[in-house]
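Quick check before the chapter quiz. The format below is the same one you will see on the exam, so make sure you can read both the input and the output lines.
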Amino acid sequence: MTRLRFLVLTLLSASVMAVSALAAEPQVLLVIKNHQFAPAELKVPAGQRVKLLVHNQDTTPEEFESHDLNREKVIPAGSTATIFIGPLKPGRYSFVGEFHETSAKGVVIAE
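Here is the expected output.
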């Protein structure tokens, strides 16, 4: 019985630690409106994985694209997409809205 109790407590502790690790993950909101990103500069902690929530408030789809971040995702009109980035080294990482590259530009700054 003691061995079973130890196993159950170990599994519960691991589950709590996993949930805590997920909760501690930084989250950043990026909005697409009028074919522009807001904010155009996102500051994130270097060395940590970040959950980027991209909310497209336009009536047309937009594609989040970043060669620097190695990410590409189409976000339908009126919806929100989740994009995980990092962990990143300190620096600047550019991104664009591929469907409106002249107006939809931004940068992630890891510090």
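If your answer matched, good. The longest strand covers residues 27-33.
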